[in-house]
Amino acid sequence: MNAQKILSRLALVYTLLIFAACKEDSPTPPDEAPKGAGDFSIPNGNVTIAGTLDLPSTPGPYPVMVFIPGSGTETREADRPVREVLLPQGVALFTYDKRGLGQSTGAYQNVNLQNSAQLIPERASDVLAIVNFLATHQDINPKQIFLWGTSQGGWVAPLVANQSDKVTFIICVNGGGSSVGIEGYYDDLADNASLTIEQLTAMLANYTGAHGYDPAAALQALNVPALLVYGGMDRSNPTFYDIAQIEKIKQERSKDFTVLLFPNMNHDLIDVTTGQFDPQFFPQIFAWGQSKLGK
Question: Domain 3-18+28-293 falls in which CATH fold?
Fold first, then answer.
């Protein structure tokens, strides 16, 4: 795993520090409910999703974060290192192998323009099964289940929240506002290093191709708070196009959406001028999370 990916995942950990002080009393689960940390196999129709629940050593029940990965074939082991910092703060972590990868059954497919309208909802159904499982777990507070969707996971998280009353809020990082077609077009254009972010964004107005999966309907239907975090130097996802779509839906539908833009950050949330996180990254996310958990 490269340094940028490690830093990006540690950003998730620091964000979740705010959750530890916000535990609530939760219903007493039945004796047959799952308990303890470890590996779990969660059925979803004709497939089984394999995942790992890591629990703090302090008394529970705990808030839990479900990490929804982006594209690629990495398994949960690539995401689990965040537990070393997360667990001491009293927050549980659930990571999983995407369908068809690692120990999860089924067939893995890369999301593309042609199959995205099928695959994005399919991946959401797998995460929904995870959320339902965690809500029955004896060591988890069912009122404090959160989703973090990174990149491609930003398309998945709203769909899950729309199908469940067990998701408290979602955080989407560098993804989730544009269609698969627009995102792919932008990514292709960005291969030309001579084009600026402003030029790339302006060129999206010329797109006349297919869109594939479009998150607009899911965002319009979303009824839980959402934090959408973007880097202004992202050459993989069209930050400013995304923000325009999100702000439009927010205004038209009176949604509880908050957009955080870090102007010098790239797709991995690294400041391109310093090689580090923006110093305001953590305080702003902390403030948002505290305001939602304090309601």
Answer: Rossmann fold (3.40.50)
